[in-house]
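pasting for the record
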Amino acid sequence: MKEKTPGAKYIVEAKFIVNGVVENHDVIGAIFGQTEGLLPTEFDLRELLKSGKIGRIAIQLNSEKDMTDGKIELPSSLDRPETSIIAAAMESVDRVGPCDAEIKVERIRDVRVDKRKQIVERARELLKDWVVKETQDADKIVEEVARVEKQRQTVKYGPEELTATPDISELNSIILVEGRADVLNLMKCGYSGVIALEGVKIPKTIITLTNKKEATAFLDGDRGGDLILKELLQVANVKYVARAPRGKEVEELSLEEIREALEKKVPLEKVTALEQLSTLAPQLRGTLEAILVDKEGKQVGRVAVSQLVDTLKSKEGVHLVIFDGIITGRLLDLAKERGLSYVVGERLADSVQVPPEVTVRTFSEMSKEEKRPEKEAA
């Protein structure tokens, strides 16, 4: 089952057992057939396969004494929460052909972790060969590699064995990130006091830490990060929130991007203002009106869309705007100039570049987020 999966970030590994004799195509057909219609259309396995967001499912099976068991590998280039949803959907399969069946996901493996290990090992070899050829002492090579490796070392913290920097217990201010790769990237860039959530369901260790320490949640700039933020707001005592640029993950940010994102972290009270948007959007559809909201989440104005630009030019203290209209480049430039953090509209005009300082949402995006299950990214 070592089939190559170009572009895959994760591999869902599962075991199955069938009360009867079946073949590979029966198992694959059951997975596609019985998950169809369970989830929103964006999780349809056939469409995800066509678009390359999941790869070809590999099956290894063995039939003996009128029973069939085996293993399944499903490659995914989706993000962590969406991959977890696909994995959970696979476990809902209870029949293969005419036979009773059970599928159990054993783990979701991060393919990039293996690649990083290979890169590190090869880098060590190249470094050693390079320096030795330059007639330097080989003992110094080992010492230098050991020193660098020690700096990159993480620890397992708490009963859930969360990935963290070695100083997580000592510091009063900590940074919460989504996964191990995020911790390593921040360590590489010189940051300390970092710990990974390791999923959308917030561990008890994180809840305890946030009650004792000043916590900043530093999350990916995607829908998965949005969902994790919602969960954090419900169960943890987070003081600040920072986000990667929209469409980027913390693990891939440069030092400058990390520094800029953390410098722009905002107090939790400003973030909670966004929670109003899911209720405001339906109210505005068809009205051709705009609602202005300040940093405390209070409405500070309601105007016709035709007057929105002029109003924003003169009105102070606007933090976000939600309106029944098209988000244009002119409006986003003005939002950046006036210090707005959020703009929500019916849709985004074609070919518009969104400034990194402004977060943009459309009504359809918010509708999808509102309808998604709470634990879809567990």
